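During the second year of the project, the team shifted from modelling isolated chains to modelling whole assemblies. The rationale, set out in the original proposal, was that interfaces cannot be judged from single-chain predictions alone. As a representative example for this report, we include one of the complexes processed in the last quarter. Its constituent sequences, exactly as entered into the pipeline, are reproduced here:
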Amino acid sequence: MIVTAIVVVPLLAAFVCAMPVVSRAARPLSVAAGLAVAAIGAAALLGAPDLGAPDLRTSWAPGVGAGYVVAVDPLSAAFLMLLGVVFATGAAASAGVGHRRAYFTLWDLLLALLAGLFIARDLLLFFIFWEACLVPVGILLWAWGGTGRRSATLTLVTRDLLGSASLLVGIVSIAVARGTLDLDAIAARPIPAGVQLLPAILCLGAFASRLPLFPLHGWLPRVYVAATTPLAIVVAGGLATSAAYGIVRVCLAIFPQGMSAAAPVLVALAAVGVLYGALVASRQDDLRRLLAFMSLAQLNLIALALFAATATSLRGAVLATISHGLVIGAALLVAAMIARRTSSFALSRAGGLASSAPALAALFTLTTFAAIGLPGTSGFSGTVVALAGAYERFPAATAVAALVFAVAAVAGLGAVRRAFHGPPLASGAELRWRERLLVVPLLALVVALGVAPRALTDRIGDETLPSVDLGR
Amino acid sequence: MTLLLVVALPLSSAALLAIVGRRLGRRSAGAILTGGLALAFAAALAIGQAFAAGKTSLVAEVWTWLPLRGADLVLRIDPTTVPLLILFTGVATLVALSALGSLAREDDVARFGAAFAMTLSGTLLVLLAANLLLLFAGWEIVAAGTYLLVAHRRDRPAASVAAARAFVVARVGDAALLVAILSLLAQFRTVDIAEIAQHLTGFADQPEALARFGAALFVPSVLVLIAALARSAQVPFHAWLADATEAPVAATALIHTVVAAGGVVLLVRLAPFLHPGVLAAAAAIGALTAIGGAVVALAQTDARRLLAWSTASQLGLLFVAAGTGGAYAALFVLIAHALAKTTLLLAAGARGTRGGAVAFAVGALALAAVPPAAGFFGIAALAASVPDRPALLVAILGTVLLTGLYTARLLAAPRSADRSTTTSTLLALAPAVALALAALAFGGLVAGGAISLGVAAAHPAEPMLAASGAALALIGLAGGTALRRWPRRIGLPSRLEQSARSGFEIDALYRLAIVEPFRAAAHVLDRGTERVLQQSEDLVSAAVVGAGELASGAHRRYARASEAVVLASALALALYWALR
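Output from the structure prediction step:
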């Protein structure tokens, strides 16, 4: 039952937020809901209660073998921790938002749905959570977003629906072939290697467009620009993470040979995406667009590691996914703080901020260093482990992707230079304590994961990750 | 434990200054910086003592780190690295002391100190890391620290451009080094340096296995070389060092001696795995940079840029030494150059005083390799280590001559060439004098056997070569003095001299070969591909929305008809079942 609590707690929070009397308490309540999810994830990762085995099995559609099956393994737990932290930070950053009740109800609902996605062990259940996420995200983007929110919502939703349609076809084909959608049952009776390719690609359609894998990323910069900062953080730390999780949990676990057959093409796409994102980022003036493309580069690096699917690369990918959520989240927050001082996200309007806000400069420099992979930050450990694992199978593509070290530096330091150095074009107040309190916990986690990544990766056993090394 | 302290002390100074530094005054920030570095120096001296007493290696296993084989936080030191450890910590301590005197009042000491200590600790990691990935981490920390040091003066746009440029050049090297490490990891299944070296020596008696490894090691070796060239400002990465003179003087001193030496340290440490052809290439590129850098230095009109090019040239000599396997000569020249160059940079600000002027002159003579300064013994060891390579020998001796020439010009440079304003002459001066003394005495002490460099010279000393080196240095000095007036032209055709002043048009070359293509590619992707993608995105959404509208429209229009069709089919089906 305790596993189900991961969904129920945020759902309850959403319910309470919808009540008219508690409108003031909605934000602290949402923060608490996020922290609760993170805490349960941490407890599961540390192994306090044994949550590994599915604790509730109810069959509600015996015809296709679908049922309510939930469980938490270390992989889910790690992502749940990230999810909780990201949502708590996002909620804390949502001060002064309009229509508070509706906003936080949707916010907690989204948390519940994403959390459910990470614990679902039944494909239909997974699909329901996957699909339902789109509703709160769509509404939050449509109703609270900034300029260009309509087109951003439309692009996000249509692209995601197309992906989901292909995922549904894939799931139906499994149901027809196996008569069950329970992931453990499918794993017990693997699908023949020869027929894996097509369903693997069908399922991947959804994950690749939500991650997004190059060249399916058209929605990403639009959403980053149009969304409110908290929503953008959640898109980076929640939606993208759910796609990476889906690739591991569904594609690699059920169709190892199919994914392996498609790997050369996918890895090449991802390697191109890494460089593409970093290159395009170097040309952006809007700080959010710049971060969107930096994020694209990192996400494609994660995709590269996932598709390579060695034990090391998968572990690196998990690390890099968590790092991406934390680092991009922190960067978006700092970007919003810059924008509050220059009343624009345009780098050309900032400039010389360092003289009036040195702490902000330090924070942004540190975040940028984490984003471009400085040792001692999770950006470094995630990237290096992911690349080291991927190099075993795809040396050429990985070597190309490793150039991101140089190219991302151009983009990242360009942003630091344009916003903070030179003659002061803009001046702004120094950081307030409340602003520091938002970013510092994220950066503390980033540093902790950079110095002691094995505290996390050692808990994710080889048997949890569907690597190609398992078959050997 | 002592070994751990050597790295941990500067690192914690950096962290402390970065976190609480802005709350501290100038004095306490300075105390944290110099205190941390001085303690690290003391620890390094203690290690040196232990090695002098007969210890042969020291290991500090700190903690696990990355989930890869061999990638733990482990430090290891052997006799070759001990002198460098002492040199780096000692020079950094003295430079930090002088920085407290020479940083202008409005400068942020805490921010400077954090970057300074960070850079040093990165270098120490490169020197002491037991595995390739920890070495790489140190390598990157140095790059980031250098960026922060060069960008320190935030109000100067040129500083921030130079910093970003230095960092990007460094990052190109980093990417190369990372791929080299990944490839070594894939081949040997570990990143532990000693383990890989052991693996290779295990095959020492099987020629064909060694040949196979040799072929497989070629690509990683080339990549390591690229990384080393980028860090040590060798051709074709030689421009960043001259631009980095935008940093405060103390930072420049650290960058010239400690940071830029990183490439040589890397080559020496990884020499066991490097392909022999690549080592030969390193020596050739080093010789080219040594001569070319000296010519460019000769053409400079700004003292600090002259010193920067001189550093590139001297590091070229180090590459010659590292490439020909002369670890002894490499160490010797490295130490001699570090002492001389730091003396020059630190004393340049205090030339108004008598002590400063003397220290500056001593530094200049040491740089020019005039006996009895350390540089002379270094050059002698270097020249003796390439007995069968006449081309390299000519390059070395030619560099000595050119060094004499530009050093004479440097001595004649107007004293106002330095921009920094000093706050405390004594603090700025004392370290320079100490370094000058070290530069004078060090060579004699080593040659006399009072100090051991940890490795023995591979070749016996050759008095003839040493004497001709000294003679060439003196001839160069005399010739340079004859050229005399600063900033008079040096007598080359003017086009050529212009070109030499800018480092043989390396900037234009970069622009054409790297910067413009990069910009153009980014531009095309941003304005071209990205726009096409966005438009196709819109088309997709329009198509989805359109399809939905079409379906609902069709439903509205043909609702009756479709119901009739369904009804008719159902009736037909029922009829079929009934009549069958």
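Residues 417-421 of chain B have pLDDT under 50 and may be disordered. Chain B touches chain A through 57 residues (CB under 8 Å).
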